[in-house]
Inverse folding.
């Protein structure tokens, strides 16, 4: 079951023309089990990061104060399962900037408080360690709260049809090294959701085949423009490819158990293609 950040019992919202002000809402019973992690100094480097783990309910809240833009607060966790984490950043005083990187230095999430973007999702891979860096955007202090809700395998949303395991793309994912990871569900199915802004905007996803068999792909357009899909294995061999210019939006190809496969989705032209790939 995936929980939405909007269901969190304590929430702070960014008000137009004002600083973020706290607003208390009804506290749901499940939040009594949430892990509330307060920063402990010194934590201004990755080596000094405050380490935490997700509890059974998959909910963590980080809080602290960055006294100025030079005061970096680091937190860290190691993902025990592959999946999607919903992120919501709230703050009082100066705006708080959150950046999340994995142990390879690949950025998986960043908020944009100047543009009012303080929530989103990030994809994590089992066994990888992730570092969360928070700091004030100004010379004055930022008191921050970060809500993390582990979705356990894929973002929701989107139109009808498709499968239960629904994975929403998370930028930046424009090359294989940044591919959004996902798992096929118990029935061997998944739906990939996103938008390729143009033919230069490539969205990559990655999965490992749980067993050998045939991969069947169907592309659905949610804005009347079909995206093109290509699947390659870890050796860069093409497994299947669709051709929307010729009206071919389904394809199939062989899978080998234990092999890694990359799914590339992109628009065919200069216009956005919103897609759901089953």
């Amino acid at each position: 079951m995936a929980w939405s950040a909007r269901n969190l019992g304590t929430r702070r919202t960014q008000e137009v023309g004002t600083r973020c002000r706290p607003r208390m809402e009804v506290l749901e019973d499940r939040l009594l089990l949430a892990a509330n992690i307060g920063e402990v100094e010194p934590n201004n480097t990755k080596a000094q990061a405050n380490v935490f783990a997700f509890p059974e309910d998959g909910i963590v809240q980080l809080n602290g104060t960055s006294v100025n833009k030079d005061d970096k607060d680091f937190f860290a966790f190691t993902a025990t399962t592959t999946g999607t984490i919903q992120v919501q950043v709230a703050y009082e005083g100066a705006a708080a900037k959150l950046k999340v990187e994995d142990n390879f230095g690949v950025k998986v999430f960043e908020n944009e408080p100047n543009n009012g973007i303080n929530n989103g999702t990030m994809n994590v891979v089992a066994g990888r360690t992730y570092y969360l860096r928070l700091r004030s955007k100004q010379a004055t202090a930022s008191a921050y709260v970060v809500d993390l809700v582990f979705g356990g395998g894929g973002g929701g949303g989107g139109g009808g049809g498709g499968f239960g395991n629904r994975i929403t793309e998370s930028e930046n994912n424009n090359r294989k090294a940044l591919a959004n990871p996902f798992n096929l569900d118990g029935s061997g199915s998944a739906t990939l959701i996103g938008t390729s802004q143009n033919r230069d905007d490539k969205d990559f996803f990655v999965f490992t085949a749980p067993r050998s068999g045939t991969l069947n792909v169907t592309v659905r357009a949610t804005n009347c423009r079909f995206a093109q899909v290509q699947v390659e294995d870890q050796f860069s061999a093409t497994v299947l490819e669709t051709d929307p210019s010729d009206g071919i939006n389904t394809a199939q190809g062989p899978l080998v158990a234990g092999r890694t496969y990359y799914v590339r989705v992109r628009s065919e032209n200069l216009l956005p293609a919103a897609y759901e790939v089953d």
Remarks:
- DSSP finds no helices and 22 strands in the chain.
- Residues 1-33, 152-161 have pLDDT under 50 and may be disordered.
